[in-house]
Structure prediction request, 1101 residues.
Amino acid sequence: MLVASLKSLLGRKVRLVMSTFAIVLGVAFVVGSLVFSDTLDRSFTALFDATVGDVVVRPAGGGATEGVPGTVTVPADLVDALSALPGAARADGNVEAVGVYVVGADGKVVGGVGPPALGESFSDAPAAGGLEGLSIVEGRAPAAEGEVVLDSRTAEQAGYAVGDTVPLLTATATPRLEAELVGLSGFPGGGSLNGATLASFSTPVAQDLFLRGEDAFSDVWVTAADGTSQEELAAQAAEVLPDGVEAVTGEQAADEAASGLLEAVSFLTTFLLIFAGIALVVGGFLIVNTFSILVAQRSRELALLRALGASQRQVTGSVLLEALLLGLLGSTLGLGLGVLLALGIRAVFGRVGLDLAGQGLVFEPRTAVAAYGVGVVVTLLAALLPALRTARIAPVQAMRDDVALPESSLRARFLGGVVLAVVGAGVLTTGLFVTVPRAGWWVGAGVLLVLLGVAAASPVLSRPLLLGARAAYARVFGSIGNLAGQNSLRNPRRTTATASALMIGLTLACTMAIIGDSAKASVDRAVEEGFVGDFVVSNVFAGAFSPSVADEMADVDGVAEVVRQRVVRAEVGGGVGTQGVVGTDPGSLATLEVDVVDGDADLARGTVLLEEGFAADEGLGVGDELTLDVPAGERSWRVAGLFAENPIVFFPVLTSVATLDAAGFTPQDNLVVVDADDRLDAAGRNAVQADLEAVVADQPIVTVKDQAAFAAEQREPVDQFVLLIFALLGLALLIAVLGIVNTLALSVLERTREIGLLRAIGVTRGQLRWMVTLESVVISLLGAVLGVVLGVVFGIALMYALRDEGLEVISVPVGQLGLFLALSVLVGMLAAVLPARRAARLDVLGAIATE
Amino acid sequence: MNTAPQAAARVRNLTKSYGSGDARVVALDDVSVDLEAGRFTAVMGPSGSGKSTLMHCCAALDRGDSGSVVIGEQELTTMKDAALTRLRREEVGFVFQSFNLVPTLTARENILLPLSIAGRKPDPGWFDAVIDTVDLRPRLTHKPNELSGGQQQRVAVARALVSRPRIVFADEPTGNLDSRSGAEVLSLLRAAVDDHGQTVVMVTHDPVAAAYCDRVLFLADGRVVRELERPDREQVLSVMADLASAPQAG
Prediction:
């Protein structure tokens, strides 16, 4: 029996490869995302292990765990107290900052996208566990003003050698400085900066730059003496610490830093796994179809096995065994492809700055388990229905010439499908419109159920479409068209199952097209409505920049007003999440068109204005207090007023710049709006823009944009995101096309005799090719129509549910959807090429003789 | 007709019909017959006489509406599917008109398929004897599409014999063969009966084929109407002519 199964598989190699392809792709996505995220994890764990001391003494406020150092510091005299602890070998104070960009020899900023641009005071203190931390690998440590050390990779990328002068940009009060490169740093004990750039200064210089000259530190590393554990040392340190300063073990500090960062990039894993799921679902359809056809074709052979004494279970088992082998093969190939995929993802991330070249790919045993688990389970599940159907093959059929596999009634299937789709719609609606935990899962499950339901119901559902297609074909293409139409109706299950694979891909593509188009339209409208002033100044890396930019711009001739916005994140009590807070100057509220609907527009120190919807959700009103965990510790800010939703105030909490400074946030601006004098003409405005650009000319990270350029910049990420998703959905489309090729090839094989007959009575090869092509186009068009309809429904439902999230405009890109339909016709024609050629090449006599 | 102890299969009052109402066709009408062990029996009759249905019922491929079929000591009519499967596996061998070999398996693998399904090892001596009888030794590694029709049918005969079934059913085994290949296959079946004491039941239209048999049963309209012992071709032909000219019953 095993031999028979194996031989049966090997006798159908091409079909095997096509069916396996879907499994291969799905598994490859799973493996690629797991390998990549494990690699990422290992790499960052190594980095963070090398960048903490045995015990880290730091300010106790929130924000420290975000990995973004604030201006709240540890007093310098604490270093002496800590080094005097019985368990301490030494204690070293560190100054840390982000937003220190290195300008390369070519005038361009090095890195910047993704990983942070870091600045720090250099220290030769060992990292936790005696690990050699950051060390000088060439030259010497920075000792005086005007000296800097770069990590060796950044120096290499920037094109600097020791002795060169390096321009640096910061988000501090000194936006641009130049320093001599006196040495290069690296991690001899392992670890890589993963694409971050690191500029190290001597401690006094770093304090001047980042701490406004205060003699203090961002944190202190305490190195344990021999025989003292991290925990013991942390406990000793805790006793000498003043309020607002805490001591944590290096292990804990590294874990916190790593988990925060890994969480930020975990969206990628989720994203890839979603596409793995899509590929597997689409692939599942392909497998169901392939096995259904195989079982139908082999039903006589299976009947023979039954007549020869094989039990029902043995026959079903033999089909499942084939599926198992197919799943194993697909998983193995997918495993290999997945590793390549991980390499590809690493390369792509390297290009945008997250440089993981220093870390080999990490292949955990779990990855292999997941690959085989997913591949085999999906294949077996998909083959289960056709396999169970073999139980209905009666042994006596081995005696008959025409063996038809008994089918369940289409009505039951239709009803089942409708029920499934209705349940799915309910689940989807719940996920979209009812507040439930893990709404994303509800939405995903709902979409899947609807898709499966429609796929199950489609043999009945699509009958009018197929009948219409046949009538149209017969009218336009004559009897060949009629035959093609008839063929698509002959086995509606097979036709629609093949179309369903395409349907799923197109549904998702259309949903994405609608989301993307709506998002762009919403961005446009938001920019149009919300763009105040004449120019927007921002950091190209979406980071912060020096507050001196706004100061200088205020002095430019023709500038009426400069409005700065700071965006920071504070922890919500208990560390359950973070809340964005916007800071501006109290006098800028009018220019920002902040409409205070309740209370006063009072941004005196320590007060906030809340967006009314947010205030209602939080149950806060005028006079209440909003409590947030900020770098300086816990702060309660009094709510002075409520304002109407405002398109340019990005977060619902608005306060003054002074309040943020007092809370310990680094003074850095994220966005500056410049209002030109209204009396200026177009030429005058251009002159103002030129003058503004001159202010930031030596800071390539900061740009000045007018409304049109700003809108284009805001749309760009949406475009890129939609493009990326289309590329991935293209793979689902590819699987669907293979499904059509597979079905047609099998149909041609099945109708060998009939095709021979047609040829014998005078049908030309060309007509035959045309007939197969027309059938293929019916299938693809059916899938496309169902997909577009479902996609439009999903897209509109989704956008409707998101209308409160700043995506108010629902826009259906009709042209794009039309393009999808046209594309699917093309896909159908392409898919038919090989099967059509095969049909046309059949030898007439041989085909008729085939039984 | 006495219930001779040497009957390999005993059929009593077997009735089977298809369809209902006006479309009702009676395929077997109260048939009682013994298929004796160690003999070569032919079942003949015009199309629609019920001969194929009789064979399917005896071979555990189909069930009658009423009456009983006993193979060896086992009553088929009340058996569940699993038991019928086991019975087919152990007691019955088949030779089909259209060979019905598995195209992806070699001749040897096709011959051993019933044993491999049953998870049994072939008896090497018996396997060799069967191979020699059907004269297929040089062809064992060939796939069915590399064999002639006669060779394919000889593979099928070997497959039927290899598990030493109580009874072998052959459904028009020469229907797709030229006369020379047909004669070879019939001689093989004859030899299986004479040399190995095998019981063979064959459905056929061909008076030449019937002439190889020990006994010929004639069916018409679902009933056994005549039988001949050790007939020659002419006797068979004359009975067939009689039956063809007889008035069709109800």
User: Anything to note?
Assistant: The two ends of chain B are 25 Å apart (CA to CA). Chain B has one domain: 38-60+80-245. Strands of chain B lie at 7-18, 25-36, 40-44, 66-71, 74-75, 92-95, 167-171, 200-203, 215-220, 223-229.
